[in-house]
Amino acid sequence: MDNITVGLGERSYKIFFGHQVLAETGPLCRDLKMGSRAAVVTNPTVGAHYFEPVRASLAKAGFTVHRIEIPDGEEYKNSETLKGIYDRLIDLGLDRGSYLVALGGGVVGDIAGYAAATYLRGIPFVQVPTTLLAQVDSSVGGKTGINHEKGKNLIGAFYQPGLVMIDVATLDTLPEREYLSGLAEVAKYGIVLDGELFDFIFNNTDKLLGRDTESLLFVIQRSCAIKASVVEKDERETGLRAVLNYGHTVGHAVETLTGYTKYKHGEAVAIGMVAAAKYAESMGLANKSETERIITLLKALRLPVELPEFSVAAYTEALLRDKKVRDGGLNFVFNKGIGGFHFARVTDLSPLLKTGGIGG
C-alpha cells in the first residue's frame, strides 16, 4: 500500500491507499497499539458488503469486535442516532481501552468520529471510508459532528483519527449517484487548489466515470495530499482551511432547505460551486471561459448545476445559520481562475444568489 502522513505533531496519522486491502485493517490497528476491543460503526448497506472482511481482519489481529449499526442516510446524522451509539457503547461496557472503527461513508465517519470524541471524553477511532466522497474529503482532517434541523454540521468537534484506510475496491459497490457525488469533491480540489488536477479530471472523465482503478488511485491520493497539506497548516479552520469549503456554504443551504433528502452532499456542493464560480466571474476573479469550463466539467461528471427554486429570503435565512457566520456576514471562498482561490466577506447575500440563478 501507498501512504501519506497528515503531520499534526502528536496527533499525526497515516492515510493508506490500495486496492482490495481491507485485510490490512487489523494489523495496522495492532501496530497502533489500539485497545483490545473494537466497535465497528456501520450501516446495513455497507455492512452487508464489508463488515465481515473488516471484522475478520480485526479478529485475526487479536481484537474482540462488536457491531453497531445505524440507519443509512444523511437524515439520520442527528442526535437521536448519536444517542443510539452511546447506548450501545455503554451496554457493551466499552471503556477507554476500546476504540471505534467508522466503516462507511461521510455520515458514518462524521457521527462515529463525534461519538469517539465525546464518549468517556474521548476514545480512539479509525476511518475506513467506503464512498468516494468520504475517501477524498470527510475521512481526512478530523471534522466530526451531526446535523441540526436548522443547519448542517452545527454540532461537532475537531477530533483526528488514528489512521485512515482507503480501499478503492469498496467503490465497486457504490451506487452511481453516490459515486458521482464524490467526484464533485475531487473537482473542488482542482478548481481552487490544483489546476493540474483539474486538467487531469477534465481530460479523463470517461476513465473516472468508468471507475478505472489507476485513475481513481491517482485522484484520491492527490486529493488527500492536498487536504493533508491544508490541514497541517490550519487544523481548526481559523484561516486557510476554509478554502476547503468552496461550494459548501451554498451547498449546505441547499441541503438544509431540501431537508437533506433531495440532494446528495456532493450534488449540493456542485450547485454551490457553480453559484460561487458565477459570482467570482462577476467580481473579475475569473473570466467567462473559466466559468464555462467549470460548469462543463461538472455537467460531464453528471452533476446538477442549477440552484433549486427557493426565494432569496429563504436562502438568506439558511445561509445566515451557517457556522461560518461572523457578525452577520459570511466568509466565502471563491475560485480565482482555475487552480486559485480568493476569500471575501459577504454581508449582502442577494447579489450572490441572483448571480447564481435565484431571483432573476
Task: Give the DSSP E fraction (strand runs of 2 or more residues).
Answer: 15-25%
Query: What is the CATH C-level name of the largest domain?
Result: Mainly Alpha
Number of domains: 2
What name does CATH use for the topology of the largest domain?
Dehydroquinate synthase-like, alpha domain
Number of DSSP E strands: 12
Shape: globular
Radius of gyration: 20 Å
Ranges where pLDDT stays below 50 over 5 or more residues in a row are none
Instruction: Determine the N-to-C terminus distance.
Output: 51 Å
Q: Class by helix and strand content? A: alpha/beta
Q: How confident is the prediction overall: mean pLDDT?
A: 94
Topology:
Elements lengths: L1 E5 L6 E6 L6 H7 L5 E6 L1 H17 L3 E6 L9 H14 L5 E7 L1 H13 L6 E5 L2 H7 L4 E6 L2 E8 L4 E5 L8 H18 L1 H9 L1 H5 L3 H21 L14 H10 L7 H18 L5 H13 L11 H8 L5 E2 L2 E7 L5 E6 L3 H7 L4
Parallel strand pairs: 2-9, 3-4, 3-5, 5-6
Antiparallel strand pairs: 1-2, 7-8, 10-11, 11-12
Helix pairs in contact: 1-2, 3-4, 5-6, 5-9, 6-7, 6-9, 6-11, 10-11, 10-13, 11-12, 11-14
